[in-house]
Hints:
The complex is a heterodimer.
Chain A: E1 2-7, E2 13-19, H1 33-44, E3 49-53, E4 69-71, E5 76-78, E6 87-88, E7 95-96, H2 106-110, E8 114-117, H3 119-124, E9 130-133
Antiparallel strand pairs in A: 1-2, 1-3, 4-5, 6-7, 8-9
Chain B: H1 3-22, H2 27-53, H3 56-62, H4 67-94, H5 101-165
Helix pairs in contact in B: 1-2, 1-4, 2-4, 2-5
Amino acid sequence: xxxxxxxxxxxxxxxxxxxxxxxxxxxxxxxxxxxxxxxxxxxxxxxxxxxxxxxxxxxxxxxxxxxxxxxxxxxxxxxxxxxxxxxxxxxxxxxxxxxxxxxxxxxxxxxxxxxxxxxxxxxxxxxxxxxxxxx
Amino acid sequence: xxxxxxxxxxxxxxxxxxxxxxxxxxxxxxxxxxxxxxxxxxxxxxxxxxxxxxxxxxxxxxxxxxxxxxxxxxxxxxxxxxxxxxxxxxxxxxxxxxxxxxxxxxxxxxxxxxxxxxxxxxxxxxxxxxxxxxxxxxxxxxxxxxxxxxxxxxxxxxxxxxxxxx
Lengths: 135, 166
């Protein structure tokens, strides 16, 4: 089974469909992305835009989720930016907060506390951002 | 229930959470799978707190593993819970549940707290009461047996002294 993501004109994932192996295979039985794309277009319209994704995150960094953007320069599907101050880590291709999340102490864990990112706190003071919250 | 069995159930529930998140199902389906996971985690945490609170002599009776194996189980469970909690948070912030955002994460925390409260009321209190009853019965029986033996011995000694003096 192969998976193909439909992208809009901004490269945002609109949906992901599964395609049978036979519909993505060439004469020798090898999986070819362009054959799969052609199959998706034949199903959903020639004006649609498709790209292959992997359920096991084997290609394009991660499985394409709805709302993710396909970045051709990184050849990766990347979720929407969670906060304006967060940046992409070039190694993991994940969004990263400008300040590392503090580790909860045992007593904080027992009390059911957790950290939440507060963008406005960060914008007001760049040395803060993670706020300890009571559950 | 055995902690490793609860942990296995939690792991299965966590796999479902990831699948549901990947399938970009409705928020309801996501929260349903998350609440199932949270239920198992709550059971596991309850087991851990019970183990910590148990008197050591009673631990040996109720849990037929060595202290080392038991400590290892607890450590494995704690690590796994932390890993999965971290991954779920990451899913909301930068992963497959990104569309639900921080608001969604807060909703999940709220839901988790409610599940814990509900299970506390419906399940854990009963289990604790049952365990306390079992423990008290055992202690009561042990005290009765030891007391009976002591009284018999004293009676026997008095009898012997009486016989010797006559």
